[in-house]
Specification:
Elements lengths: L2 E7 L4 H19 L7 E7 L5 E2 L2 E2 L4
């Protein structure tokens, strides 16, 4: 039973997120031989004001 966690900065549309989890499920199923109904995908969206690169919050860009 594969578990996949994806962390990304907020800002994607619902359609983009749905497409992403569909594709991830397909790839994990194909490469692990796991049935799609056993694959769990967790999407964790990081708020831009809680994520920084090179000492600068993403919300400051």
């Amino acid at each position: 039973m594969p578990f996949v966690t994806i962390e990304l900065v907020e800002g994607r549309t619902e359609e983009q997120l749905k497409a992403m989890v569909t594709e991830v499920t397909e790839v994990v199923s194909r490469t692990t031989n796991a049935p799609k109904e056993n694959i769990h995908v967790f999407v964790e969206e990081l708020k831009k004001n809680r994520y920084a690169v090179n000492g600068k919050l993403k919300s400051e860009e």
